[in-house]
Design brief:
four-stranded antiparallel beta sheet; 16 helices
Length: 440
């Protein structure tokens, strides 16, 4: 690499950084971008003040926010933005703490030693090649190599020390963060997969209840089976689309104020008929949604009565009472089909110790039955992934690994080819068969 290429690369990177900082400074001043830059403050219903619309200050980049950003303490970041944001900011601080001393050592110690090894000091003329500033300019057996070794040892031990201090500090922050959120539900919950089907009660929820009541009797509290909610989601999507259509037609009907009177009345009458038709369709969708939502409660009551009352007669009586409590029309065969239970459940425990013990121990002799994991936070649950059977997850991981490998290989081939063309002279010296490319 020559000096001109290095300066060009540095200029491009510095210019891009300045452009990005300028855009950030301008965009954060616009009220339309408040949901992006002030999402947490808006969620807490804090008031955000902006300058008036036609002011010069809103269209001139400012650097005052940099001083405020550098003066923020870790405790304030932890309270306002959370632990993840603190980790990212500490990562940037770690880079600054590590690379600033490395740059000082390289510029003040290594660079003069390398440059003055074979020549005298000549700063009037910058060489076209940067090899004079590297270790390749130091000859074999030179005592200056010990300076390189000492600087390398210093940088290595300094980096290890920073890593140790950073890990120690983040560990303390994490424990502090966990102490402040002692009653978070996911800390007491375990995600259980591959739940076997209970042939006696014809349900998986009762199998979870029996299993954990037997093997974790002192810490088990409750369970919630996961159901296949694709039908409800589809109905909710259709109801949302229908609601938007009705609102759109109502707005057009109220804003119609031009043309002849008879034409207007005819158009309004047609729109009213269409609105009525859409409202009937929306009522039908809402009825189906209520049916599907009520089936879970109906099924749970039936299972409860069946578990308590062993006789068939008492179960029928209680089942009829349960039917009458939900809705009389639920018994119609048109919409009555119980939702499908997935072999996945969230099991809650009375203590963190019980949840951790259940999540980190093997529950069954069969490795693909009663698989337990620590439950994610409610906002981090990917419901679509719960539909995937557990024994398919290994195949999915292999597929992702193969895709990443193929992408990396096909990305490395053109990069290697381009770098080979740039360094073709050195390649011919190190690898003589590459001269065939020049002949071609």
């Amino acid at each position: 690499m020559n000096a001109h290429s290095l300066l060009a690369s540095a200029g491009i990177n510095i210019g891009l950084a300045l452009v990005i900082l300028t855009l950030f400074s301008l965009l954060k001043k616009q009220p339309s971008n408040a949901v992006i830059y002030y999402a947490r403050r808006l969620s807490k219903q804090d008031r955000i003040s902006f300058r008036p619309l036609f002011t010069l200050h809103r269209f001139i980049p400012s650097v005052s926010w940099i001083r405020h950003a550098l003066s923020v303490f870790d405790d304030e970041i932890l309270q306002t933005c959370g632990l993840d944001a603190l980790v990212v900011i500490r990562l940037f601080k770690f880079g600054i703490k590590f690379f600033v001393p490395c740059s000082i050592v390289g510029l003040l110690i290594l660079l003069p030693i390398n440059y003055t090894c074979k020549h005298g000091i000549s700063w009037t003329e910058l060489p076209s090649s940067m090899d004079s500033f590297t270790i390749s300019n130091v000859g074999r057996g030179s005592d200056r190599l010990w300076v390189h070794f000492c600087c390398l040892y210093f940088i290595s031990f300094y980096g290890l020390y920073l890593l140790y201090e950073e890990y120690k500090g983040l560990l303390g922050r994490r424990l502090q963060h966990l102490r402040t959120i002692r009653h978070r539900p996911d800390q007491f919950t375990v995600l259980v997969r591959e739940i076997p089907y209970c042939s006696e009660h014809k349900a998986r929820s009762c199998s979870v209840e029996h299993f954990f009541s037997k093997y974790h009797p002192y810490t088990y509290q409750s369970c919630q089976i996961v159901y296949d909610g694709k039908k409800v989601e589809e109905l909710l999507r259709q109801a949302s689309v229908m609601t938007k259509k009705i609102e759109h037609l109502k707005q057009r009907a109220t804003s119609q104020n031009s043309g002849h009177l008879y034409v207007i009345l005819g158009m309004i009458r047609g729109k009213v008929e269409k609105i009525e038709k859409y409202e009937e369709r929306l009522q039908e969708l809402c009825y189906k949604i209520r049916c599907l939502q009520g089936e879970n409660m109906l099924k749970q009551k039936g299972l409860k009565f069946k578990h308590v009352n062993n006789t068939a007669g008492s179960f029928k009586i209680e089942q009829k009472e349960a039917d009458s409590q939900v809705q009389p029309s639920l018994a119609e065969p048109k919409f009555f089909s119980l939702r499908k239970e997935l072999p996945v459940a969230f099991v809650s425990f009375k203590s963190r110790w019980g949840a951790t013990l259940a999540a980190q121990t093997r529950q069954h002799v069969h490795p693909l039955l009663w698989v337990t994991h620590v439950a994610p936070e409610p906002r981090d649950v990917l419901w679509d992934n719960l539909y995937i059977p557990y024994h398919y997850l290994a195949a999915h991981k292999i597929g992702v690994f193969v895709a990443v490998t193929v992408f990396t290989v096909f990305f490395a081939i053109p990069v290697t080819a381009v770098q080979g063309l740039v360094q073709f002279e050195k390649i011919k010296k190190w690898f003589p068969p590459a001269r065939a490319v020049q002949l071609m």
